[in-house]
Write a structure and sequence with these properties.
The structure holds 2 protein chains of 2 kinds. Chain A is mainly beta. In chain A, 0% of the residues lie in helices and 36% in strands. The chains are: A mainly beta, B mainly beta.
């Protein structure tokens, strides 16, 4: 099962 | 007051063509550093970061920091009306709800101005720290575009793996599978034709081809592309804009659950 991650998982929302 | 004169107007045309399909609306930020943009696609999977440094403009006047919300499709429509050899000037008055694009033909015999309405955009800004990447691949941008296009006819995702053997692009789909390996190749006539791999650690990451294909719309901006990879981090796909800056695309990986 392959899930698409989102960028907000890696970078802080300023 | 804002007035930015770009002699090589075609660069701005190419920039818009490279990002308008990924992002609908975005805030362009103008400061003494330059003209920049950071925007995510609507699903927060990919991000585009653009920088056109102030030194790259023939004339750069930005009295105070300004953020201008624009619909990128509408901006692209207006810039399409500029000739490829035209000089483009971006103008805005303080507090105005419009921006003006002025196009001058190289011989100054045709001068056009297009006024576009600005919009209020609640944009999220991500703080992206400078990172050391496990592997950095520089290759001809046309080659990368060709690979993404070819693989997307077979599958939906690409696994990019970097080892000391080279960089491998793999996909699988209903009709079969494909693997394309590019080896480091620095013995070429032109430096831009080289494939250069700097690897600290082997990397293997999976991405949606739908997005990498969006990124390759930036191919006309640069003859080379730089792909920076670290395990479990978003990939950065960078197209340098001749002596002015860059368009960088960030893409979150797919993870096996």
């Amino acid at each position: 099962n392959v899930e698409q991650n989102v960028l907000t998982l890696y970078y802080d929302n300023l | 007051m804002l007035e930015l004169r770009l002699v090589q107007g075609s660069l701005l045309k190419k920039v818009l063509e490279s990002i308008k399909e990924l992002v609908n609306d975005a805030n362009f930020d103008c400061s003494s550093t330059g003209f920049s943009l950071q925007a995510m696609d609507s699903s927060h999977v990919a991000l585009v970061a653009l920088l056109l440094r102030s030194e790259g403009f023939e004339h750069y006047r930005c009295d105070r920091n300004l953020s201008m919300g624009m619909n990128l499709n509408n901006m692209a429509k207006m810039l399409k009306c500029a000739g490829n050899d035209d000089i483009i000037t971006i103008k805005a008055d303080d507090g105005s709800d419009t921006v003006t694009f002025m196009f001058e033909s190289p011989t100054q015999d045709k001068i056009s101005d297009f006024e576009m309405k600005l919009m209020d955009i609640d944009s999220e800004h991500l703080g992206i720290p400078e990172a050391e990447y496990d592997a950095i691949v520089r290759m001809p941008s046309a080659e990368f575009a060709r690979i993404c296009k070819d693989l997307s006819s077979i599958g939906d995702t690409v696994v990019i793996s970097v080892t000391k053997e080279g960089v491998k692009f793999s996909t699988k789909g209903d009709i079969g599978a494909a693997n394309i390996v590019c080896r480091q190749n620095t013995t070429v006539d032109k430096p831009d034709d080289a494939t250069v791999i700097e690897m600290k650690e082997p990397v293997s990451l999976q991405f949606a081809l739908r997005y990498t294909n969006f990124f390759t719309k930036a191919t006309p901006l640069s003859s080379t592309v730089t792909i920076s990879l670290s395990n479990e981090l978003p990939v950065v796909v960078e197209y340098k804009i001749a002596e002015m800056g860059y368009v960088r695309f960030y893409l979150a990986p797919k993870i096996e659950e």
